[in-house]
Amino acid sequence: MARDTTDFRPIEGVDELVEHLAEGNKPRDKWRIGTEHEKFPFYVDGNAPVPYGGEHGIRAILEGMQEKLGWDPIMDAGRIIGLVEPTGQGAISLEPGGQFELSGAPLETIHQTCREGNAHLAQVREIAEPMGIRFLGLGGSPKWSLAETPKMPKSRYEIMTRYMPKVGTKGLDMMYRTCTIQVNLDFESEADMRRKMQVSLKLQPLSTALFANSPFTEGRPNGFQSWRGDIWRDTDNQRSGLLEFCFSPDFGFADYVGWALDVPMYFVIRDGQYHDMTHVTFRQFMAGAARNEIPDGLPTMGDWANHLSTLFPDVRLKRFLEMRGADGGPWRRICALPAFWVGLLYDAAALDAAEALTSSWSYEEVLAMRNAVPEQGISAPFRNTTLREIARDVLVISRMGLKNRGRKNRDGYDETSFLSTLDEVVARGTTSAEELLSAFHTRWGGSIEPVFMEYAY
């Protein structure tokens, strides 16, 4: 999320919180695709991490991008921490360890998403390459220790950094040493949200497997195909993971609100200052728990929107649905991830087929799949088969959905071509992570350094 929300409307009751989510309902002709992708900046000289400050640091990249694009700066305590397009059509933000993120504009087609990603990467290269900086498309930082990883001067991250070790063993790794590709998708009603939430929660482990791309830590193989997937198993389980209550046949907005109310907060913002609120849940906040701690002590709709942005389930519900399972990766993956989910969820026949395929999958089975994927990728077992075979069926459905959409580019090609990188994973029977491990043990001669050349933007 590029910019934390300020909305000073007071909250009168829980019904307003439910209505906040329901306001995301959109007619089909208004559905859009919002793609986010993160990458690790590094100095070409020595493949070293890039700090925030200095003549050739991340602040300088942001300032150069601001001058080039004319976007508005996002400031935190007087420091530039991101950029936002003046009409809200996209933003650039920083993750805690300096991961550079584009939060894309809400677009109509995957063709537009790919053009947006291409343009962004070209723009950031134009600014960064004269500084000796490039960007790495992996799901996990392959070389630098946590101590070696820079820290960005962002107030919400200071609060999270103090809090994470209290609630899990891997939260700091999640913050500072992972990257993802995400897509944000719309729904037209509560019932439509329910169907999409349930299908995408069940298939999120498959997405993690298909996009597994984080097999190295601190210069060596880490034992995982998706180290990032493993990290999410013990980051902060109060606010992340696979949500069992979402599997209920009558799951709705109120259920998600009920869960979110009982998750500890991270912060509230008053007069530009961030106040640590990790000691109370949002429900306690609404009951007056912070009345003597912060100015005005009463919750606002801006506080609620910010709280929703600090929840990390595999599929996150805001006024849209966020698909959160995939590792970061090279350019083709930036296009493949939204194509995969748009094909499954934005066509009625495809959603019907995906729902039929997964309807009998239980929470326990999906959880077991989720736990197997970080180590085993698409070889992970499911019932009497493997995720590789499940992926064949799911890609057929996604391709059907994209074909049915019929969104063609100026050369007459539809969106199905963007699935080709995932078709290759299934055809090979090996993930990107396994290909990287093979290279490490053979042509790279046990060195991690070549990854910075082969997976650089």
TrEMBL record:
<keyword id="KW-0317">Glutathione biosynthesis</keyword>
<comment type="function">
    <text>Catalyzes the synthesis of gamma-glutamylcysteine (gamma-GC).</text>
</comment>
<dbReference type="InterPro" id="IPR035434">
    <property type="entry name" value="GCL_bact_plant"/>
</dbReference>
<keyword id="KW-0067">ATP-binding</keyword>
<keyword id="KW-0547">Nucleotide-binding</keyword>
<keyword id="KW-1015">Disulfide bond</keyword>
<comment type="subunit">
    <text>Homodimer or monomer when oxidized or reduced, respectively.</text>
</comment>
<protein>
    <recommendedName>
        <fullName>Glutamate--cysteine ligase</fullName>
        <ecNumber>6.3.2.2</ecNumber>
    </recommendedName>
</protein>
<dbReference type="Pfam" id="PF04107">
    <property type="entry name" value="GCS2"/>
</dbReference>
<dbReference type="GO" id="GO:0004357">
    <property type="term" value="F:glutamate-cysteine ligase activity"/>
</dbReference>
<comment type="similarity">
    <text>Belongs to the glutamate--cysteine ligase type 2 family. EgtA subfamily.</text>
</comment>
<dbReference type="InterPro" id="IPR014746">
    <property type="entry name" value="Gln_synth/guanido_kin_cat_dom"/>
</dbReference>
<keyword id="KW-0809">Transit peptide</keyword>
<dbReference type="InterPro" id="IPR011556">
    <property type="entry name" value="Glut_cys_lig_pln_type"/>
</dbReference>
<dbReference type="GO" id="GO:0005524">
    <property type="term" value="F:ATP binding"/>
</dbReference>
<comment type="pathway">
    <text>Sulfur metabolism; glutathione biosynthesis; glutathione from L-cysteine and L-glutamate: step 1/2.</text>
</comment>
<dbReference type="InterPro" id="IPR006336">
    <property type="entry name" value="GCS2"/>
</dbReference>
<dbReference type="GO" id="GO:0006750">
    <property type="term" value="P:glutathione biosynthetic process"/>
</dbReference>
<keyword id="KW-0436">Ligase</keyword>
<comment type="similarity">
    <text>Belongs to the carboxylate-amine ligase family. Glutamate--cysteine ligase type 2 subfamily.</text>
</comment>
<feature type="disulfide bond">
    <location>
        <begin position="114"/>
        <end position="335"/>
    </location>
</feature>
